[in-house]
Amino acid sequence: MLDETGLVLEGGGMRGVYTAGVLEFFLENEIFFPYVIGVSAGACNAASYLSGQRGRNKTVTVEYAGDPRYISWRNYFRNRQFFGMDFIFDEIPSKHVPYNYNAFYERPSEFVVGTTDCHTGEPVYFGKKDYKNDLLTVLRASSSLPFLAPEIPYQNRMLLDGGISDPIPVKKAIEDGFKKNVVILTRNEGYLKKPSRFHFLVNRKYPLYTGLQKSLRQRYSIYNETMAFLEEGNKKGSVFLIRPSLPLKVGRMERDPKKLEELYYQGYVDAEKSAEKMLKWINNHSM
Questions:
Q1: How far, CA to CA in Å, does 47 sit from each of 53, 76, 79, 212, 235?
Q2: What is d(CA 90, CA 67) in angstroms, rounded to the nearest whole number?
Q3: What CA–CA distance (Å, rounded) separates 154 from 108?
Q4: Is the pTM of this model over 0.85?
Q5: What is the DSSP string of 163-219?
Q6: pLDDT digits over 167-225, tens only?
């Protein structure tokens, strides 16, 4: 049954427009889940999906991508932020593309946002009862990439990108009682991460955050282990995967609106093609 199924969303920076396309199809067809969990761009896209604002993700992630206030080297040289975090998390939702907080909080779905604690390097998750009216703060923390954005102080912690410590938080969904999950990925089938060769830069940038250093060193193995877990779950019937069916042409920092729009519609089409099979899987696999 749909009320027994969770929705898990990977991050990926601008590759998240794929997820935006998938969620737009879900929104248009009123496909909602009782439990949604995501990190980084996945969590940001989920917010507009759960507020029921059709087209909002496309406007924010595709149409604003060419705006230097959104993503640019100018931002980095001025504020040491490649993404304009104030513009994205303050100005856009309050002025340019207003966010419907009332609709979000009225929706019964639980929405969990994953972040990383800089001191421990461990994942920290925030549900509705934790962030209450601070949704944008935890979304900002979950999206704050190392080196490209400052740490976010929140509830006596220093937080960064949720994708560092738990890139695809399916095990948290299971822990929270959802044994069956639809998982939206932003990488092609077969993708695995390789170890980073730049740990010395991490140690230099974050000398006080030994937990973060360790988590960044282990990031590739955490990701690859999670993918193995998902593939096994997919075979056993506890996981339904939706991921880009065509080779990706978009990177984490992509600014080309044409490429982004193509990936957005690929997400929409992949969801459309998967919908009948997914709904049958949900209804036939009560656990």
A1: 9, 26, 26, 26, 30
A2: 15
A3: 25
A4: yes
A5: TTT-SS-HHHHHHTT--EEEEE-SS-TT------S-HHHHHHH-TT-HHHHHHHHHH
A6: 999 999 999 999 999 999 999 999 999 998 888 899 999 999 999 999 999 999 999 99
